[in-house]
Amino acid sequence: MKRRTLALLLLAVALAGLIPESSAIPPLPSFRYYGLLTDEYGRPVTFDQDTEIALDIDTNECARFTVNEQLGDGINYILEVPVDYAKSMRYASYAARTGDTVAISVYRGGDFQPLMNTSSVPVVGAAGDAVRLNLGMGTDEDHDGMSDLWETQLIIWNSGGQYSDVSEVLPGDDFDGDGVPNIDEFNAGTAPELAGDVFQVYKWMLTADNLLAVRFLTVQGTTYEIQSAPAQVQGQGMQWTSTPFRVVSAGGDSNRYVATTSGFKYFYIEPREDMKLIRLEVVK
Ligand SMILES: [Ca+2]
Ligand SMILES: [Ca+2]
Ligand SMILES: [Ca+2]
Fold it and tell me: What is the pTM of this model?
């Protein structure tokens, strides 16, 4: 018995030497910020744009992530913020507490980039929880959700003198007359001056294999989903559900697709009896 006690004591001493004191309080699960970072043109930022997102509390950096569109599901970043529950000293300088105010910064190629609308960044939540936070790069002088760069390019290159200031480019206007308002073009990453560049189904047809083929224009880095609904039931509205599709006619089914390029693409859907309506959605 004595020998066992001594062995345990020796083990405890040995472990105490191995484990740094700062780990005496085991960290709680992280709190996560995740979402979609879009560039000044409203397009999802891709890995090849060499962009990092950092999260700071006071002067301490608590999390950093290299943006990657291949995370799928309409997200391209995740910030894992370690959460500490200790009332006194934090177990590490990068540990956050629930309720802490955070600052989020974006760097492209190492250079700081401004973000639109950072006033709505939520505080750190409970350990294990997560919050979606979509972020847009750029400045937005007139606070209409469309970046100054995007609006200025429309003014200078395409408005033919019609506009001279960003305040004249209105979110609800449809400059190119393609049926999609300017703000929706910005959010979809399409060109507001080109009627041919618009988020819509351009064509659909039945293939020889009885698959429904849907053709549309992708924006690189964007996640797409097909949804279907049975016929509308009076008073209940439309019941849309995620529907499997293929990106090559002989491929396997999936429910989400991350566009690797901008260009025309076909999705192939196996029609079912209960699919009376089908729509294409951007996941964000
Ligand atoms: Ca603006
Ligand atoms: Ca338009
Ligand atoms: Ca357009």
Answer: 0.84
